[in-house]
Amino acid sequence: MQNMGFLSNPSIYSAGKVYNAERFREMRDKRGYNINARWIDLNAEQSKDKKLVWKLCHADACSADMVVIYCHKPNDYLLGTLVEAGHAMGKNKPVYCINSCIHTVENELSDCAYTSHPLWHNLVLSGGKLTIEAGYRLAIQDYCENFWG
Fold first, then answer.
1. What is the pTM of this model?
2. What span, in angstroms and rounded, lies between the C-alpha atoms of 84 and 16?
């Protein structure tokens, strides 16, 4: 990762919609973030094998230092990311949610009680939307200050 003043380069499990895989690869390959999420490298045929996908997602979410969920659109349905967040929190690892979507804010269908878990951290910009990189930087900063070491 580019030297951004962090004491650590924690491994990150990137969680989000499949259409964001390219963004996650860019964060890893061009920006130097330590992303541990093999699902982002699967081709279309491999992605059809849901047992393989979930095997990789489970292993990677559990082995990463933290999970970062990226809510690109407010109406994104991120049910799989909630499972991955549960994997991480079950291993006592923090989860950071960049922006918000239907599954991360209280609504008529759910109180989203899991967002009150002490390992869940909402990263939102009042009146706006965080870029993926700004969200990653905030997540790493919090991780370094509160979990690293």
1. 0.92
2. 10
